[in-house]
Design a protein that fits this description.
Order of helices and strands: EEEEHHHHHHHH
Protein name: Site-specific integrase
Distance between the termini: 64 Å
Number of strands: 4
Number of domains: 2
Number of helices: 8
């Protein structure tokens, strides 16, 4: 069976070692599957293939990379409440926002009725407080070390804009 990536002209089979999703991005789902128990392998591939046809290549890479790290860090027989709890501890508060990726993916996995995800996992994800990724905080705080511009660069831009308006 051939699956089509979201970007036109790109397709793959579940058995392919490399899924080319667009001109620049590909994933290697079998690196994840090699770490999974047998009963979950096909389920993961089918769910990821569904996602690859609906979502961006970057999002698919994020899912695949997260599952690769997750299944490499711990032994999981099925995705249940214990596996989710362990992942939350593994991610820590700084990367807790990545649970949103897992939540969406395994919710779809469960809705597709593929084996490998227990209802307890979804209940656990509802109980965990997922802190959103703090993107843009350095910019909002005008942090000179983490923000997009140093103080010198910002002053130069502001002075240039002021001079431009004075010339009019």
């Amino acid at each position: 069976q051939i699956f089509f990536a979201k970007m036109n002209r790109y397709s793959f089979k579940l058995s392919d070692k490399k899924w080319q999703l667009d001109k620049e991005n590909c994933v290697y789902p079998h690196k994840v599957v090699d770490r999974m128990p047998t009963k979950m392998k096909l389920s993961y591939l089918k769910t990821l293939a569904y996602y690859a046809s609906e979502y961006s290549s970057f999002y698919i890479q994020s899912i695949n990379n997260l599952f690769y790290k997750w299944f490499g860090a711990m032994t999981i027989d099925t995705i249940d409440d214990k596996a989710i709890y362990q992942l939350n501890v593994y991610l820590g508060s700084a990367r807790n926002y990545k649970l949103n990726i897992v939540k969406a993916f395994i919710t779809k996995w469960k809705k597709l009725n593929y084996p490998g995800v227990e209802a307890t996992a979804l209940r656990m994800l509802e109980k965990i407080k997922i802190i959103p990724n703090q993107t843009g905080e350095a910019v909002k705080r005008r942090d000179p070390n983490k923000g997009p511009l140093t103080e010198t660069e910002l002053n130069y831009i502001l002075n240039s804009v002021r001079k431009f308006y004075l010339q009019k």
